[in-house]
Design goal:
There is one protein chain. By secondary structure, this protein is mostly helical. The protein folds into two domains: 1-45, no CATH class; 49-156, Arc Repressor Mutant, subunit A, CATH 1.10.10.10. It contains six helices and three strands; from the N terminus they run ααβααββαα. The protein has helices at residues 22-45, 53-64, 70-77, 81-93, 115-137, 141-158; strands at residues 68-69, 97-101, 109-113. Strands 1-3-2 form a three-stranded antiparallel beta sheet. The relative contact order is 0.11.
């Protein structure tokens, strides 16, 4: 793993010099994402009801698509139907989702978050936001602004609209 030094001097192969451009920055971002992922997961685990990242992801998918069926949830999570079914069994047993017969297709079951399921998502989001705010508060205001600008530029580039580019750029530039 590289360090956020920007130059990768800690790499045993000597790679990561400033001439690597995008590739060097990608290594830095990878480290930052690892740190963010750990912070994100730890904050989620401190909620009153401890759920796995997999369970939280299922709840978020169901929040954004109320009434999805089991097949749609499995596809959205890129898991098999038996795994999705067991996941829903656990979430239902915890009182976080309910299965309801589809009003027009009698063989189809819709998945809906319960009020408690929505509460858990609000609590986890609040804890994660607070954990991020604690870290951001330790940064210099200029660093926070630079991070904000960089994140906006990254999202724009990811959506394909950065400075009129039509395709992916060479990561070695």
């Amino acid at each position: 793993m590289s360090r956020l030094s920007g130059f990768g001097h800690d790499r045993p192969d000597g790679a990561g010099g400033p001439g690597e451009g995008s590739l060097s920055l990608a290594r830095e971002m990878s480290d930052a994402v690892d740190g963010l992922s750990h912070l994100w997961s730890a904050a989620g685990q401190k909620a009153n009801l401890r759920l796995s990242p997999h369970q939280l992801r299922a709840l978020r998918i169901l929040e954004s698509g109320p009434g999805l069926n089991l097949t749609a949830l499995a596809e959205g999570m890129d898991i098999g139907l038996p795994t999705a079914s067991r996941l829903c069994d656990r979430l239902e047993a915890a009182g976080l989702l309910e299965r309801v017969l589809h009003p027009h297709r009698r063989r189809e079951v819709q998945l809906h978050l319960t009020g408690r399921g929505r509460q858990v998502l609000v609590e986890v989001a609040s804890r994660r936001t607070h954990a991020l705010a604690v870290v951001l508060a330790t940064m210099d205001p200029a660093e926070r602004e630079a991070l904000s600008q960089g994140l906006r530029a990254f999202l724009t580039a990811q959506e394909g609209g950065h400075h009129g580019t039509t395709g992916p750029r060479d990561p070695h530039q």
